[in-house]
Amino acid sequence: MAQGRDQIMARLSNVFRDVFDDDDLQLNEKMTTADVKGWDSLMHITLLVAIEAEFGIRIKPGEAGELSDVGELADLIARRS
Amino acid sequence: MRVSKSDSMREVKDLVRQEKYGEALATLKAIAAPEDHFPLQHQYAMAYSSIPRDPKDLSPIKLAVAANSTVDHFVELLNFWLGLEGFQAEIYTAPFNTMDQSVLDPSSELYRFDPEIVWLFSSYRDLDDTVMPGSEEEPLKQWVQSNVDRFAGLWQAVKSHSSAYIIQNNADFPLPRPFGNFEVSAPWSRRNLLSRFNLGLAAILAPGVTLFDMEYLAAYYGKQHWTDEAYWHYSKHAFNLNATGLVAHQGARLIGAIKGKAKKCIIVDLDNTLWGGVIGDDGLEGLQLGSGSDGEAFVAFQHYLLELKNRGIILAVCSKNEEATAKLPFQNHPHMIIKEQDIAIFVANWQNKADNIRHIAETLRIGLDAIVFVDDSPYERGLVRMELPMVEVPELPDDPSLFVRTLDRLRCFETTGYSAEDSRRNELYRTDALRMGAAKQVTDIDSFLKSLEMEAVAGPLGPLQIPRFTQLINKSNQFHLTTIRYTESQIMALAEDEKNLCFYFILRDKFGDNGLISAVIMRENDKAELYIDSWVMSCRVLSRGMEQFIHNFISREARQKGYMRMRGKYIRTQKNNLVADLYDRLGFEKLVETESESDWLYEIEDSNPHPNVHIAQVDSD
Prior knowledge:
The structure holds 2 protein chains of 2 kinds.
Chain A: H1 5-19, H2 41-55, H3 61-65, H4 70-80
Chain B: H1 2-17, H2 21-31, H3 38-49, E1 59-66, H4 72-84, E2 87-93, H5 99-104, H6 109-112, E3 117-120, H7 137-161, E4 165-169, H8 190-203, E5 209-212, H9 214-221, H10 223-226, H11 229-235, H12 244-258, E6 265-268, H13 279-286, H14 292-310, E7 314-320, H15 323-332, E8 345-349, H16 353-364, E9 371-374, H17 378-387, H18 403-408, H19 420-423, H20 425-441, H21 445-451, E10 454-460, H22 466-475, H23 488-496, E11 500-509, E12 512-526, E13 529-537, H24 546-560, E14 565-571, H25 582-586, E15 589-593, E16 597-603, E17 615-617
Parallel strand pairs in B: 1-2, 1-3, 3-4, 4-5, 6-7, 6-9, 7-8, 10-17, 13-14
Antiparallel strand pairs in B: 10-11, 11-12, 12-13, 14-16, 15-16
């Protein structure tokens, strides 16, 4: 089912807020691991599994490791959903 | 379902923000299920860590996890589930891929952490993956032996470098089968070798080690989902991250059992719980029991409860009914599986169930936190949850065919052993009720005690008594002066040290054998003085002169070894008020007393301190 970019970003924002337990987190497409407190390799895995559950998709952990920012992550989700 | 849990999690966070911590914890407990997927579990764990808890409500525990796979996410959830189990956990995780090294090196960080429990968190991937298609028996035997020996060696190392209890994972069986269905027939297949390895571990199990059944959890979760190749190759997670809650929950329950927190008693409602229909309205003929699919489901549930009862879980009834009506099916229904004599206490009246459950706990002399209450009525469940939050009250589905699995998946009756006492426990509690009946008829307590014809066996702790001795030390809350807990390996070490005196006591009477009911550990303070480190007794044998018998016995033994004095300590907990004045009653002199503890001294005399005890000492059996 096709969904708009805004919709994906809104759902992704909620996933980030839940995973990092930060309701004030403002997600934007330019953000990288350095911009989110606690986004280390272990939390990255938690995040991937949470995205899989939210969007009902499967992401290869390896391909997610190569993404440079949140925008590319949203691209990947759009391709898969 | 998932949406509603996410919404509930927002509610939990709001409650935390408003500092309504009790409500936040209760809500969290109500929504968290072991089967929930990992992202939710991660939210539970984070929410839990934001709720401050009163250390008085929690038991501290130090646990070390050693693995060759990535266990960080598992440890996060284990900490959460241990919290719900009543533990303040401190968990040390050995560096990735150092299971064997951490355990074998006596100077490793793992031993410096000084854990109470070491969990060797292995999977089939840790084992030598040689497959020998068509092989003869001998090489197969050698394969099994060498893999079992490796873990036996690790256990030995843990035991010689620490006094920690050991949890050992067995091997889950992998998903792929190169030989297909034929693997089940071939003795050399990977699957059958792993199966023999698991049996091999069980066969060499020694006190102080327990196996953790990963293969059961893999099957329970569903092997095609349990196996997650992507995360094995990417991050070395040994199983699907979404199964982590399930493993952590089972682990927390097992650790609870090791530390004496397993449930002891199940209290069941009758109408629409043990049978379909309402006996008072529908009569015997109108009950669904025995025939029809619901009728068969209730029979199956009764079979399951009977199995629990036969392994030592106390079975009690709490029903809103006239007692005579409630007993009709037990006496006259041809398909009743549970009989009246299987029920330790039968309560049928019109009072509120919370009061009745309190009464049952007091009569059985067990804590409310040792009770599981099963009732089909949401009202009764809600009432008991509110009035008695320490009682475990599972949600019961409408369909009775799901009752067995609903109860079984709670894993609340975990155990690390099984003793003769366990199989006879219900009978013990029933004969207690008989004794209470007899006591009512006799007004003179001395003649009553005499009429019991009590005999006790007492002696130094030996290997035979160690499992039950340890169980008693860890399960007793009320008659436990210091509430110190010991693992089986620690008890063995204590018993072997000549500077300690460890005694066990068995009590029998004309109604039956009560089994091993008391344990005493005394340590040498100096050549003339002993310190009573632990003294526990089963509350079932209170007020019969057993305390005095034991005091006589240990005084004699101490005197024979040349000791002149015994020191005792009482450390107050929420549960052991029963023995606050024990040393006073026995004639000890109070030295110091604070709100939380008191110190006592007893100068040992030549004669028995308590001559009027109606218990004869006999040699064992």
